[in-house]
Specification:
The protein is of the alpha/beta class. The chain has 6 helices and 5 strands. A 5-stranded mixed beta sheet has the order 3-2-1-4-5. The chain is globular and about 35 Å long.
């Protein structure tokens, strides 16, 4: 199983995937903070390991859309309070601060303390943007993920609809 640490920002998200048993880095990536980026993140993660959990720094003002997209895709998501990843970051040997270092620290904090020690993100009862429901969002994302192999990896309908929002 892998743990994918996510450092979220308004315009982009940094991702770092680590092995749950060893903490060894399995991959790193930066995505745009939009629907197409969220879809790309899910596809990337599915290519790394069959079993995974997403660890998102608990900044819901900027992480909510990613969290909802992951839940819509059927992914397991836990929330990591900023103070919990601070101890992991201090233990890293890399000097300075960057989004990738923070994403790695978030993932390793979950590996160190155990996935079950973090609150699990769930659907909210609030209405989603444009009055859509979680079911509509899930259907849209799953349709995009199931697009034909010749579509270039992202459903053109999904991308077109993303641009309208």
């Amino acid at each position: 199983m892998i743990v994918i640490g996510t450092d979220t920002h308004k315009g982009s998200h940094a991702l770092a995937a680590v092995d749950e048993g060893t903490g060894r880095v399995r991959g790193q990536r930066e995505i745009k903070a939009d629907d197409a980026g969220h879809l790309a993140a899910v596809r990337w993660a599915r290519g790394l390991d069959e079993e995974r959990v997403w660890a998102i720094e608990d900044c819901r003002a900027v992480s909510r859309r990613l969290e909802q997209a992951l839940l819509a895709a059927g992914e397991r998501v836990v929330r990591v309070a900023p103070h919990r990843m601070g101890a992991s970051r201090r233990g890293e040997r890399q000097p300075g601060k960057s989004d990738q270092i923070d994403a790695l620290a978030i993932a390793r904090a979950v590996v160190k303390d155990g996935v079950d020690e973090f609150p699990v993100a769930t659907w909210t009862s609030r209405r989603w943007k444009s009055g859509s429901s979680p079911i509509t969002a899930r259907t849209s994302l799953l349709s995009a993920l199931a697009c034909s192999p010749g579509c270039g990896g992202i459903s053109s309908n999904y991308v077109a609809n993303s641009r309208r929002r």
